[in-house]
């Protein structure tokens, strides 16, 4: 099979003021560490939630928003962040985003109430939404050649994937030794150091004063993506017919089509829809969304499995992912080199093919699994993360020319975040449905049907500790373990089948060579006829 190249060598970058042009490695370090922190906070808080609930007297719904507030703001404002970067200058926005992320971390670490903690998480998410698209665009500026840029994006992608993988690994031990505040406080000294160093080494990036703000597009994107994520997060816990969930779905259903209509007619749109008409960029977007959907959902529920079923501590459950993290470190730079030497689609095809294999492997273990049995699955997850997300960054940045690079990167990052939230919601819906049916069948063997039904509903809404107390606990508690495993396996196999279908679609889509990207700055490639 002849795979398409991701594009011809780019024109030379403009000269940078001072001696910053001679320090591209320092720029890469600043941006990789910043991206690592942003992605780390996607999952690092998960192991801290029980302690937060106890210290701040917060129920399950409030704890969900400790996690959701960060992801919601991060995903909803990535696209507006890209256009603000063009308008104000990418260097300026990157530093502002890093400062906001650091400030949000400090607010959360010193929070003495749920509202202050959530406020800090919102500020963190806004900072992440500002710096992520700016970072990729700045790398394009300091690495003008495709080969060196691909390697640099490989290291940045490895830092991103490593942040996701190390979230549970770092979060668990920090919570057990220093308290939940330490998960946020650790960002503060690192963020301050990066601000000082970044202000010195980051290149000047002139703003595009003629670029319009596209306020209708920004508002519709925030409303549509934010409404959709809100509904997906709240739906499993509040019910899909809850008025707030229905209102959020309605808002998203109206705002997202309106966004497409507005952007199609805008003279300078925030979202250039030709990004999706470029078949190879569409492949990258599909791969990022589907892989995030599967892996985020799987990792979230695997953490519950390790603590609910196997009885591990938060730190022990987090350390399970250490082996996957090691393989991300090793294969991330390798994916960048492969993308530079041959084609980014070769490692991408391998990565998306490994995803269903990893999910099927996770689904093959039950109530008495041991860590040694996962030793083959965790490296597969690590390799899958690197060989999928690193080539996606390379494809997007190299297929899109000029100032549109920030917009294209924001689309790719937004779809990845949206895929993760969708994965937790969608796979969670499968898990909850199968778990309730299985638990109900077992509970009805020892309890009247009405009591069994109420017990099943309570177990789903409040967890086993609240639902399985009392005189019937000994009779039904083993049934909960069996039911949870039934639901978990159903969710993982569902994800495996879905990602296998996506992998076949991607293979078919990249078989036919595509046109090379346009050389003019700011233009997207148009697909071949």
Describe this structure in words.
The chain has 529 residues and is mainly alpha-helical. The relative contact order is 0.13. α16 runs antiparallel to α21. The protein is globular and about 70 Å long. It is built from 21 helices and no strands. Helices cover 76% and strands 0% of the residues. Residues 1-21 and 518-529 have low confidence and may be disordered. It is a multi-pass membrane protein. It holds the Pfam family MFS_1. This is MFS transporter.
Give the beta-strand count: 0
- Tell me the fraction of residues in β-strands, as a range: under 5%
Instruction: List low-pLDDT spans.
Output: 1-21, 518-529
Total count of helical runs of at least 4 residues: 21
- Return the string of H and E elements: HHHHHHHHHHHHHHHHHHHHH
| Average predicted local confidence, pLDDT | 75
Helix content: over 70%
Radius of gyration: 23 Å
| Distance from first to last alpha carbon | 20 Å
Class by helix and strand content?
A: mainly alpha
Shape descriptor: globular
Q: How many strands, what sense, and barrel or not for the largest sheet?
A: none
């Amino acid at each position: 099979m002849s795979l398409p190249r991701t594009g011809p060598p780019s024109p030379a970058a403009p000269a940078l003021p001072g001696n910053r042009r001679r320090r591209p490695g320092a720029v890469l370090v600043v941006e990789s560490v910043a991206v690592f922190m942003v992605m780390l906070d996607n999952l690092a808080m998960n192991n801290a939630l029980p302690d937060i609930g106890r210290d701040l007297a917060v129920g399950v719904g409030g704890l969900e928003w400790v996690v959701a507030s960060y992801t919601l703001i991060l995903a909803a404002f990535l696209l507006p962040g890209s256009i603000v970067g063009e308008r104000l200058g990418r260097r300026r926005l990157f530093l502002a985003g890093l400062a906001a992320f650091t400030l949000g971390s400090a607010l959360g670490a010193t929070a003495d109430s749920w509202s202050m903690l959530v406020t800090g998480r919102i500020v963190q998410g806004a900072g992440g939404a500002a710096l992520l698209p700016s970072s990729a665009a700045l790398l394009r500026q300091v690495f003008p050649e495709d080969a060196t840029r691909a390697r640099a994006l490989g290291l940045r992608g490895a830092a991103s994937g490593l942040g996701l993988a190390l979230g549970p690994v770092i979060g668990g031990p920090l919570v057990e030794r220093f308290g939940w505040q330490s998960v946020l406080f650790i960002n503060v000294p690192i963020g301050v150091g990066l601000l000082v160093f970044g202000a010195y080494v980051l290149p000047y990036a002139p703003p595009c004063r003629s670029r319009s703000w596209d306020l209708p597009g920004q508002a519709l994107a925030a409303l549509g993506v934010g409404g959709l994520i809100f509904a997906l997060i709240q739906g499993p816990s509040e019910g899909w017919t809850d008025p707030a969930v229905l209102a959020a779905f309605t808002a998203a259903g109206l705002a997202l089509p309106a966004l497409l209509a507005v952007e199609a007619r805008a003279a300078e749109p925030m979202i250039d829809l030709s990004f999706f008409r470029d078949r190879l960029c569409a492949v990258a977007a599909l791969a990022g969304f589907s892989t995030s959907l599967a892996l985020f959902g799987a990792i979230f529920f695997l953490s519950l499995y390790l603590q609910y079923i196997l009885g591990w501590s938060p730190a022990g459950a987090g350390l399970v992912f250490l082996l996957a993290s090691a393989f991300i470190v090793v294969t991330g730079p390798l994916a960048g080199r492969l993308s530079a030497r041959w084609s980014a689609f070769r490692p991408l095809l391998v990565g998306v093919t490994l995803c269903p294999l990893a999910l099927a492997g996770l689904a093959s273990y039950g109530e008495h699994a041991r860590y040694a049995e996962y030793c083959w699955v965790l490296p597969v997850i690590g390799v899958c993360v690197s060989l999928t997300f690193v080539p996606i960054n390379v494809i997007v940045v190299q297929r899109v020319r000029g100032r549109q690079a920030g917009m294209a990167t924001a689309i790719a990052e937004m779809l990845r975040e949206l895929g993760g939230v969708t994965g937790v919601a969608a796979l969670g819906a499968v898990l909850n449905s199968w778990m309730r049916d299985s638990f109900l069948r077992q509970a009805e063997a020892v309890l009247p049907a009405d009591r069994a039904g109420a017990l099943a509903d309570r177990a789903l809404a409040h967890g086993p500790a609240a639902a399985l107390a009392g005189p019937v606990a000994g009779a039904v508690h083993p049934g909960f373990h069996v039911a949870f495993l039934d639901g978990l396996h159903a969710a993982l196999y569902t994800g495996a089948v879905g990602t296998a279908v996506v992998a076949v679609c991607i293979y078919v889509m990249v078989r036919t060579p595509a046109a090379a990207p346009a050389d003019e700055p700011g233009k997207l490639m148009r697909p071949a006829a």
